[in-house]
């Protein structure tokens, strides 16, 4: 590839929810720079395919080398971008074909310099019209639409969460909170709550398991639940002891 050419960046990028995460922003910028701006033939997985504008082939190792970020950071960033429908990933054993979903919306029609399979892109979270300072230029992006299809991450949460009330509302809350990115944290918290005093059906006193949408809206995965301690017999004529002893 060459270093010629340019891409458009939009000022609303400053208000991106990850704008203070320097590592994320650098990886995202590298993705924009790596994407091709024109049809480009490559050999991928033993077949000749045509890369379309906004696509490129890479790997976590390659992106880590280009950005200086750890591969785990690359993985989390790609996963977040995919969950937000900013990219799509098609994986093989050795590499990944990345498609930037809104490339044509923000980059088409103004590329002049040739850049082989890897060189530009802009984001679906940025407004339109870059290097124009006129106040009458549209500067607001359309609000991100909520998907009607449950993500695999949400399904994992729903299968584990004990209160199966209001799945649609829970899915809306899941998307608004962008919980796909913190799935591991949420599942760990749900497991802790399953053993807590208020959620355990064997606990003395009232149990209360909030609606899943309420639990998500209130960031309840950040709570520290009170553990439930059960007392059982060790054996005949044995004193009671706490579970786990």
What does this structure look like?
A hairpin with a 2-residue loop joins strand 1 and strand 2 (47-51). The protein is elongated. The chain has helices at residues 22-34, 60-67, 71-83, 103-107, 152-160, 167-176, 183-194, 212-217; strands at residues 40-44, 47-51, 55-58, 87-91, 96-100, 231-233, 240-242. Helix 2 crosses helix 3 (71-83) and helix 5 (152-160) runs parallel beside helix 7 (183-194). The chain contains eight helices and seven strands; from the N terminus they run αβββααββαααααββ. The model is unreliable at 110-144 and 236-245 (pLDDT under 50). The chain starts with 21 loop residues before the first helix and ends with a strand. With 245 residues, the chain is α+β, with helices and mostly antiparallel strands. The protein folds into two domains: 11-107, Winged helix-like DNA-binding domain superfamily/Winged helix DNA-binding domain (Arc Repressor Mutant, subunit A, Orthogonal Bundle), CATH 1.10.10.10; 152-233, no CATH class. Strands 3-5-4 form a three-stranded antiparallel sheet. Strands 1-2 form a two-stranded antiparallel sheet. The protein has a two-stranded antiparallel ribbon with strand order 6-7.
How are the SSEs ordered, and which strands pair?
Blueprint: H1 22-34, E1 40-44, E2 47-51, E3 55-58, H2 60-67, H3 71-83, E4 87-91, E5 96-100, H4 103-107, H5 152-160, H6 167-176, H7 183-194, H8 212-217, E6 231-233, E7 240-242
Antiparallel strand pairs: 1-2, 3-5, 4-5, 6-7
Helix pairs in contact: 2-3, 5-7
């Amino acid at each position: 590839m060459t270093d010629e050419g340019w891409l458009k960046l939009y000022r609303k990028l400053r208000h991106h929810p990850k704008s203070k995460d320097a590592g994320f922003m650098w990886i995202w910028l590298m993705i924009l720079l790596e994407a091709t701006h024109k049809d480009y033939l490559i050999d991928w997985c033993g077949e000749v395919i045509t890369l379309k504008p906004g696509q490129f082939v890479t790997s976590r190792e390659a992106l880590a080398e280009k950005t200086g970020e750890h591969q785990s950071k690359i993985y989390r960033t790609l996963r977040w971008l995919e969950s937000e429908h900013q990219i799509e990933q098609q994986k093989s054993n050795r590499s990944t074909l990345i498609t930037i979903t809104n490339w044509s919306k923000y980059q088409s029609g103004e590329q002049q310099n040739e850049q082989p399979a890897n060189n530009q892109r802009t984001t679906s979270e940025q407004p339109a019209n870059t290097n124009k300072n006129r106040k009458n230029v549209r500067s607001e992006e359309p609000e991100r639409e909520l998907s009607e299809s449950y993500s695999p991450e949400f399904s994992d949460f729903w299968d584990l969460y004990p209160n199966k009330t209001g799945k649609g509302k829970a899915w809306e809350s899941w998307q608004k909170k962008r919980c796909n990115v913190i799935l591991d944290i949420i599942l760990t918290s749900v497991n802790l709550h399953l053993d807590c005093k208020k959620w355990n059906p064997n606990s003395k006193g009232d149990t209360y398991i909030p609606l899943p949408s309420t639990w998500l809206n209130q960031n309840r995965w950040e709570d520290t639940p009170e553990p439930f301690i059960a007392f059982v017999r060790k054996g005949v004529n044995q004193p009671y002891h706490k579970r786990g002893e």
